[in-house]
Amino acid sequence: MAKRGPRYSKEEFARRGDEVYETKVKPHLKKRDKGRFVAVDIESGEWEISDDEMEVIKLLYSRLADPQPWMVRVGSPYLRSYGGRGLSSGQSP
């Protein structure tokens, strides 16, 4: 049995993941999907969407034997954010 794990460099994962997201996933998203998690397989272009980041990966693995998953949070450049809210103008830290 082949060893599971990444088959590409971090840069190639990002390039392929972003390409699949932009071309195959984003055209199908609605405003209500903002904040949801998308997992794409960078090899097949298959994808799943869920409100839960662990669930979305499980969904992808349940359909594909050995996916190479890339995750995106709809409407955000980050999967997660840490810390407090940003300050509005005129407020000091």
Describe the structure.
By secondary structure, this protein is an alpha+beta fold. The chain has a domain at 10-73. Helices cover 29% and strands 15% of the residues. The protein has 2 helices and 3 strands. Strands 2-1-3 form a 3-stranded antiparallel sheet, sandwiched between helices. A hairpin with a 5-residue loop joins β1 and β2. The N and C termini lie far apart (55 Å).
Amount of beta strand: 15-25%
Q: Helical proportion?
A: 25-40%
List segments where confidence is low: pLDDT < 50 over at least 5 consecutive residues. Answer: none
Radius of gyration, rounded? 16 Å
Strand order of the largest sheet: 2-1-3
Q: Roughly how many Å apart are the termini?
A: 55 Å
For this structure, the quaternary state is single chain
Task: Characterize the largest beta sheet: strand count, sense, and whether it forms a barrel.
Answer: 3 strands, antiparallel
Q: What overall form do the CA principal axes indicate? A: globular
Mean pLDDT: 87
Number of helices: 2
Task: Give the helix/strand class.
Answer: alpha+beta
Strand/helix succession? HEEHE
The strand count comes to 3
